Amino acid sequence: MTSTSIVFYEKPGCATNRLQKQLLRSAGLQLEVRNVLSEPWTPERLRPFFGDRPVVEWFNRSAPAIKYGELDPTQLSASQALDLMLAHPILIRRPLISYGSQYMAGFDLVKLCTHLPANSELPETGSERESRSAGPQGSIGCLAAGSQ
Q1: Nearest CA to 85 among 62, 60, 102, 68?
Q2: What pTM value is reported for the model?
Q3: Which one of 8, 24, 90, 134 counts the least CB within 10 Å of its CB?
Q4: Helices (H) and strands (E) in the chain, counts
Q5: Number of other CB atoms surrounding residue 86 within 10 Å
Q6: 43-62 residue pLDDT tens
Q7: Mean pLDDT rounded to a whole number for the chain
């Protein structure tokens, strides 16, 4: 991984993840793209991506089990959530991004920009809201930038 390289865990074929990757590459960043669904996750490898966020924010709200009310993430402990995600990676909020010692779940441009090298500024894509947001879940995919 180079100094401007990001490991980007995506769901292959996801249009929103494709847009996120284009934005990062347009800033000159190198991406190491991996499949979030087939990655050999362990609780120890997956947990850092969620930081101090509440367990409910660890989940992909568009996953069928959540979307159709079969699973209520508000009722789960961190351990239960990780166990479910290891068994069913479609539940994981994406993309997962790691950069050096930084980890995040969801595409948060504000947070990402604070950890990028100074020469890797992300391009403006219109209004401030548009530059941070696109897609049905908020921030070019998953969680509205700045809403932590």
Answers
A1: 60
A2: 0.78
A3: 90
A4: 6, 4
A5: 16
A6: 999 999 999 999 999 999 99
A7: 82
The residues that are catalytic are 14
Whole-angstrom distance, CA of residue 63 vs CA of residue 91: 6
Report residue 4's pLDDT band, with 50, 70 and 90 as the boundaries.
low
Torsion angle defined by CA atoms of residues 75, 103, 114 and 111, in that order, rounded to the nearest 10 degrees = -20
* 48 prior amide bond cis, ω within 30: no
Q: DSSP string spanning 28-45?
A: T-EEEEEETTTS---HHH
Q: What single DSSP character describes residue 18?
A: H
Cα separation, 116 vs 110, whole angstroms: 10
The predicted model gives 88-93 an average pLDDT of 98
Q: Tell me the longest C-alpha to C-alpha distance in the chain.
A: 45
Q: What is the DSSP string of 56-88?
A: GGGB-TTSHHHHTTS--GGG--HHHHHHHHHH-
**Does a cis peptide bond (omega within 30 degrees of 0) precede residue 95?**
yes
Give, for 17, the enclosing helix (H) or strand (E).
helix 15-26
